[in-house]
Amino acid sequence: MALHGFRRTRAGRVAIRLDGAERGLLRNLVEQLREMVQPADGPDADPADPLAALVGIDPAATTPTDPAMLRLFPNAYGDDEPEATAEFRRFTERSLREGKLANADLVLSALEGAGDRLVLRPEDVQPWLGALNDIRLTIGTRLGITEDIEDRPAFGADEAELVAYDLYDWLTFLQETLVRAVMGLRPPDVS
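and the corresponding structure tokens:
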């Protein structure tokens, strides 16, 4: 994988060069994110309540048991206020899921239409940052990465875990270079 990252163009736009493997990997990760955040319109959804449908209330929204989903859709209140947490989730989760889904769709659309060089429109920057961040949060949660943990497993550890750390690092690099490019800062040195 090449480490190009995002850069500011002479025209003031933000661009990145992605080879086929990078584009395919990023597409795969975004598709997985899309599957995770897809709103649940299962049997608990109440189509008979037009107000709920109109304003996006999700009566079936519950606190996720998957730690990665809980990281993407955290509780608004502490554990001591379960009723307030449930009520807040009912009123906000559907729109949060739809926003994450829209970010993922925008990134997928950009990746499908791009050659090796992708130039972002100014209005695409926030959705890209959101999607990259959501994927990083998911992988980081699965790896148990917290602000207190900075140690990677030693060489010879589980290969799948090492690959996940590499993905996490790559996504961090992409996110950092995107922020730096938007701010007009030089890309970080990669050695």
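(Above: one complete record from the training split.) DSSP finds six helices and three strands in the chain.
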